[in-house]
Amino acid sequence: MKNKYIISNVTFKLTKTNHKLNYSYEPLKNDLMNNNIHSPTINDISKSVIKIRSSKLPNPKITGNCGSFFKNPIINKLEFKKILENQKEVPFYNISENEIKIPAAWLIEKCGFKGKKEGNTGTHHKHALIIINHGEASGNEIFNFSQKIKNAVLRKFNILLEEEVNIIDN
């Protein structure tokens, strides 16, 4: 329904009890363990997530960026097995009995784009999923660079990345 509706009002029902906390993300688990936190609270998880993200992502006040540019692709297990034949270390997350999620940043990095600079744009040196503006990059320059990334991932892994950002046509 993108570009068809706008949300003008939202109501959230929040609870203070019986939260099911998910901290299975490996860097989060490690950070909690390194801080000797074995039964984390929501606040512990929040602080840890902020710390992890701050260590990986550029500060937008210093380096222009739009955050994560591409969605993490979900592929079927057969496609995943083909990738696994050549890339034994591929990180993944089981989504369902037949679906696997692969980090887009890993795919982009394996295509040689982590920290790559081209003209006034590029990817962040700590996180390949972040496309940054090194100065005066135009929207077209950023878009064209993103398409090079998409094409490289498609050629190497047969996975078409989908933009997470909204791209506005002029």
Which features would summarize this protein structure in a list?
170 residues, alpha+beta, Uridine Diphospho-n-acetylenolpyruvylglucosamine Reductase, domain 1, four-stranded antiparallel beta sheet, three-stranded antiparallel beta sheet, 5 helices, 35% helix
Summed up, what is this model?
By secondary structure, this protein is of the alpha+beta class.
What's the topology here?
Blueprint: H1 26-34, H2 42-56, E1 64-68, E2 74-76, H3 77-86, E3 93-94, E4 99-101, H4 104-110, E5 117-118, E6 121-123, E7 130-133, H5 139-157
Antiparallel strand pairs: 1-7, 2-4, 3-4, 5-6, 6-7
The main sheet orders its strands as 1-7-6-5
Number of strands: 7
What is the level 1 CATH name of the largest domain?
Answer: Alpha Beta
- Shape by Cα distribution: globular
Q: How many strands, which pairing sense, and closed or not: the largest β-sheet? A: 4 strands, antiparallel
Tell me what the CATH architecture of the largest domain is.
Answer: Alpha-Beta Complex
Please bin the fraction of helical residues: 25-40%
Low-confidence stretches: none
Based on the structure, what is the oligomeric state of the protein chains? single chain
Structural domain tally: 2
Class of secondary structure makeup: alpha+beta
Order of helices and strands: HHEEHEEHEEEH
Tell me the span between the first and last alpha carbons.
20 Å
CATH fold node name of the largest domain: Uridine Diphospho-n-acetylenolpyruvylglucosamine Reductase, domain 1
